[in-house]
Design goal:
Two copies of one chain form a homodimer.
Chain A lengths: L60 H5 L5 H15 L6 E2 L11 H13 L16 H12 L9 E4 L2 H12 L5 E5 L3 H9 L6 E2 L4 E2 L2 E5 L18 E5 L11 H14 L2 E5 L24 E6 L1 H4 L7 E4 L12 H12 L5 H10 L2 H27 L4 E3 L5 E5 L5 H12 L1 E2 L1 E2 L10 E5 L4 H15 L1
Parallel strand pairs in A: 1-13, 3-6, 3-7, 7-8, 8-9
Antiparallel strand pairs in A: 2-10, 4-5, 9-10, 11-12, 12-15, 14-15
Helix pairs in contact in A: 3-10, 4-10, 5-6, 5-9, 11-13
């Protein structure tokens, strides 16, 4: 997905790879606690002798197709390089969509209680059901899909939406075709490449072969022109959208479901930001009549409860969704979950259950409102500076247009001059070129300070 | 893998599937709390109308190759059916290898503390590094691989060995060949089938095409005859072995590493039971000279700390391991981990770190010793009854021979007559036919009661 140059010399045919820009990857100085920057250290330096033993196992050619690094580790790398250059800088990250506010006590208390209970005979539990604990599945079904005909048995609890996207790709296999919004969350395309669903990457157009990129721009209201969209087996669709922050309306989602029904496609609907919706846009694809026969929905507690590190999400695979031969998709997904996964942590699940209690729901709502206030501050800042700004209303992401400029150049300019980390839009696909995604996750004082610096830069 | 008949009528070409044996899957009566039996409810009943909308997406043909259900859910299903038949029976499970003893307080305290800290500004953490927290990686490296040349950066923390096996299969892709011990843990073969590495299943020989089944029997000391083993890209090897409980000696593992070096293969070494070793057998494949250039090792806190529900494991991908083109395997595994996974739960990782403290290591050792006492009781019981019994010395599994009998028949006989759940050996591959795996995970009084019932049955 990544439409940027690899900063290090990594070649699929080379037996060695270089350290980044000459600075050591092993230095502990670039690894502050609780920072993602030490992902630099993630892979140890391999032997660089030509005489090293090599296995006869061929590298998976799909892996070789992947371009450069996954977007967010690449951003972390650039952040670390910046810190080396400016060791005293107060870097503020509005980059990766990582939650920053403490988890409400009603939720962590439940996890602490469950942890402690594991030391008692009565409270101990070992393997849980791979599909998730019954109470949690029931609570998710009733809380988010109460009147939509989605039942407990349709819910598969997971360790997060990204992980489930990958499991869904294993379910579909390598012989399906797929469409994505362009721009979109990189994991859709990258997991598709890994599974062998795509062709090669074409650097001139910044696209992989055999993927339908559904362009989403300000001109089309960030909703693709379905009349010119090729039919594919799978349609990944995220609303509220990451990165554009746009939300599809009821009418638009009705069009999408109709399109999928006519095309015989399966929609994988990512609703990880649905609780940020403050207008009457649908919060679930299953609000659209007929969606249960054409859609899977994946979601997460990450951005609702600050569970990015706790890891808990879910996927809805309705019993009504059938392959062309009539076989239920849920039956195969269940097999994937049982074979390739062993359920989310029981402690995280206790937290999820607390999230869905009356107090938990209120507490989650308060945190979401806090981030939405951040979003408004960021939107106001860029608007006051004369930028065209999108998103932000129903999502914690603000999508800022820098017409005619390279996203990575803007990213570098902002980092260099204000010590702020954003996310370059082109990292989400060619349709993101010329945009920057600004995340509203952050402490209030940091968001205010960031906006102050931006005002100085672009005044 | 499963060499048994599907109990329900599930056809890949049918648009409906029947409920199991006529009893409702939706009854809450068969779903006691904290039981795996409710996996029966995992997939809701699909619409059985021929007029239902079907997508045009073809079912993944690899999924269609899989035989019946994954072994352990199938056992859970039979257990539930037994409970329906004998609602007052005190069923004791020595079946799935699920830990039963409370987690030592030193470990759960750390998890409770980390949970609570997430409610504070200082203690909150969001996304961690996908590869795991630095301190935990370092602690795993020093505790288990201190003098073996394995470094922190070679360690990838995960949510369990089963999950990592699947991620490793994504890494390898569909064009590799693989070998497994026969019998072996079903996830190796099933994930291989899902990834498309295998041919069809041959019901007459209970094997998939294009897999090398390395027969492990009492006659060869449960170590395969490598002189007649076909060369494959990948060799899955588990020691101490699940299900046979046997452990490969240093000499045998030296042979295995030599075989892999000569064949150009990659060994995926599963050491999830290594802490159960009480003799001088190697606890890691990396104790064998030259292994770092040919082996990956996957392991887990599940059976050490009772973390089957907490979910925490790790995989070692040494920097010295190279594909045929010299590209480091770790580099691609890192990409898989970053794209398809988002790290283990931060709370679980806090637990893992506590496990590796001096007090935690002692506490884990005590629990392991408790299970090893259970093992000795079970071994003595079957031995006294005149059975040939294997394993048990270095593993929590006892492998009991019932020559000339079907494993599922023996499983059914024991369940019917003693209300004990075991695991049929044939569920682990054709080489397991005629054996039963008895797990030593259980409360002492249950193990004693189980042995009493077995003595009555087989006296």
């Amino acid at each position: 997905m990544a439409a940027f140059q690899a900063p290090s010399s990594i070649s699929s045919s080379s037996s060695t790879f270089l350290v980044h820009n000459g600075f050591s990857l092993r230095s502990s100085k670039i690894c502050p606690p609780r920072s993602r920057t030490w992902v630099l250290k993630c892979v140890a330096a391999p032997p660089n002798s030509e005489t090293a033993h090599k296995t006869k196992v061929s590298r998976n050619e799909n892996m070789a197709k992947l371009q450069a690094g996954y977007l967010f580790p690449e951003i972390a790398r650039r952040r670390s390089a910046h810190l080396l250059k400016y060791p005293d800088a107060k870097v503020i990250s509005l980059g990766i969509g990582d939650t920053t506010e403490p988890i409400p006590d009603v939720i962590t208390s439940a996890m602490a209680w469950r942890s402690r209970a594991l030391s008692t005979i009565e409270g101990y539990s070992g393997y849980g059901a791979e599909q998730g604990e019954q109470k949690l599945r029931a609570a998710i079904a009733s809380t988010y899909y109460g009147d939509l005909g989605i039942e407990e048995a349709d819910i598969f609890v997971s360790d997060g939406a990204k992980c489930d996207i990958s499991r869904l790709q294993m379910l579909f296999g390598s012989n399906v075709t797929m469409a994505v919004q362009d721009p979109s969350y990189p994991a859709y395309v990258d997991s598709s490449v890994i599974m062998g669903q795509t062709g090669e990457y074409y650097n001139d157009i910044k696209k992989y072969g055999n993927i339908e990129y559904m362009r989403c721009t300000p001109e089309n209201g960030f909703f693709p022109n379905l009349s010119t969209t090729s039919k594919t087996d799978i349609i990944f669709f995220c609303s509220p959208n990451n990165p554009t922050g746009s939300t599809a309306s009821r009418d638009q989602l009705t069009q999408l479901v109709q399109f999928a029904r006519e095309s015989g496609s399966i929609i994988v609907y990512d609703s990880a930001y649905a609780m940020y919706i403050s207008d009457d846009s649908p919060r679930s694809i299953f609000e659209i009549p007929g969606a249960k026969e054409v859609a899977i929905e994946t979601s997460s507690f990450s951005k609702y409860a600050g569970f990015t590190g706790v890891r808990l999400g879910w996927t809805v695979v309705p019993k009504e969704l059938l392959f062309s031969n009539g076989f239920p998709v849920a039956k195969d997904f269940n097999r994937i979950v049982c074979t390739c996964f062993n359920g989310a942590s029981n402690i995280s699940q206790a937290g999820g259950l607390a999230c869905l209690s009356p107090d938990g729901l209120k507490a989650m709502g308060d945190v979401i409102n806090f981030y939405k206030e951040n979003t408004a501050i960021i939107v106001d800042t860029f608007t006051s500076l004369g930028f065209n700004v999108y998103g932000g209303k129903n999502a914690p992401y603000v999508w800022v247009h820098f017409p005619g400029r390279s996203s990575w150049d803007v990213f570098a300019e902002i980092l260099e001059k204000t010590h702020l980390v954003t996310t370059p839009g082109s990292g989400f696909g060619p349709g993101g070129e010329g945009f920057i995604r600004v995340s509203a996750f952050g402490h209030r004082e940091n968001v205010l300070e960031a906006c102050k610096r931006l005002k100085q830069l672009y005044k």
